[in-house]
Amino acid sequence: MTGCPAAREKQHHERKALMKRRTFLKTSAVGLASILLPPSVTKAASEPGEQKSRIRDGGETSVFLAGAAKGSGGKVLRTAVREAAEAATDYSWLSKGDSIFIKPALNSGNPYPATTSPVAIAAMTSLLFEKGAGRVVVGDMSGIEHVKLSPEGVRGSSRELMKSCGISEAALGAGAELYFPEEAGWKAFYEDMPVSGSNWKGSLMMPNILKEVDHVVLMPRCARHVLAGSTLGLKAAVGYWRTDTRLEYHRDAATFQEKTAEGNTVGTLLDKQRLVLTAADKILTSFGPDKGFVLQPGTGLVIASESVVAHDMASLAWLLLNRENIPESEKDMFSDPYESQFIVTAGNHWVVGKLGGWLAALTPEGLTRNDISTIWDDRVLNRAYQVLGGRPKIRMKTANRAVPGELNKRLSEMTKPPGS
Q: Are strands 99-104 and 273-280 parallel, antiparallel or unpaired?
């Protein structure tokens, strides 16, 4: 989006006015239908149990890779993002004037790859406007170390953290709006249900903005995580959750990995999430999620798929592949503390204390670290196959010529089930 600030501001207000009209029309239509039509016709499509995953057990699913050579600069990465996105989806889900929520990983204010790439955010925002979007909103709520929302108020600011890591400037420069759930307050969340039979005790508290928008585009990063082992697309759902949902997640930690996958089965995400795209020309290969050893391979990747499960299979393979090149100096328990069960246990106790107070910190279930030598070891993905339609058969495809054939072959082998 180009033009002077005044012109951009005018366009912003015009988009907001358009969205209000669209919301009014949609609400009016639903209300009229509920009066005139029988209940079976007006039953909500987002009820748990009615959701239909686009991925079927054993179904073939494509993941697209676009390459960006090391040191090639932001322009090349922007192009790679566009190439991967356009290969991964045909945008048939996007009607002119629709609103889209871009969900980055904003766990801290640290720069990419500790958070999502600002270059990728700007490229994706611009592309969505070109495809007909009327409104693009970029938002997240940061981790408990930096931001805590309670019924009494807020400590910290995701807005300031987004400025620090560069996403804010990139998003605004491309014409997006910003949204931070904690600024709307404790009551600006709604209950959304995960899949039946999940390890969650009840509903998850999700931010109201998701009810307002038409679509969601998820833009995580590729990184190690001191408690979870990795933080990719499925793990990024935590950024939606209110503090009480995050408390249950960490307190009832025996099923921490399974609840990570199940958190992606709420009706809103099944209805509205269209694309998952990660810029991974830089990878946080140790420690995580806020800091660690940053590895920049000779050929960086942008990974894109309509399936969050298929995306995470490829993204985890890419993380594991790059972890093979970590220097020896970064391989002790202090540089990569996930290797220590004691540190994982102590770290989760600390998080529970931050979320729920010192008494809660004394009584959480044990969080058992999950050895992840291959993608088939990952409890998050293994649960995702069960609750999100089955284990897809990955077709790894290239979206530009910058991806070496040998690299594509290696990732294809790493995402192929053993014995197949």
A: unpaired
pLDDT tens for residues 365-383?
999 999 999 999 999 999 9
C-alpha distance from residue 242 to each of 59, 247, 270, 283 (Å): 34, 9, 19, 28
The CB-based long-range contact list for 407-412 (8 Å cut-off, 24+ gap) reads 407/65, 407/67, 407/299, 408/65, 410/321, 411/65, 411/314, 411/317, 411/318, 411/321
273, 247 contact by CB (below 8 A) = no
Phi, psi of 301 (to 5 degrees): -125, 150
**HEC assignment per residue over 214-250:** CEEEEECCCEEECCCEEECCCHHHHHHCCHHHHHHHH
How does pLDDT run across 281-291, given as a tens digit for each residue?
Answer: 999 999 999 99
Cα of 13 vs its chain's centroid, Å: 28
Assign domain 12-24+55-326+372-414 one CATH number from 2.40.50.180, 3.20.20.70, 3.40.50.11440, 3.40.50.300: 3.40.50.11440
Amino acid at position 372, single letter? I
DSSP state letters, 134-151? SEEEEE----TTT-EEET
What's the pLDDT tens digit per position in 221-262?
999 999 999 999 999 999 999 999 999 999 999 999 999 999
Question: Do the strands 148-150 and 153-155 form a parallel or antiparallel pair, or are they unpaired?
Answer: antiparallel
Pairing of strands 299-305, 273-280: antiparallel
Q: What is the pLDDT of residue 58?
A: 57
CA distances from 21 to 14, 25, 212, 230 (A): 11, 6, 12, 42
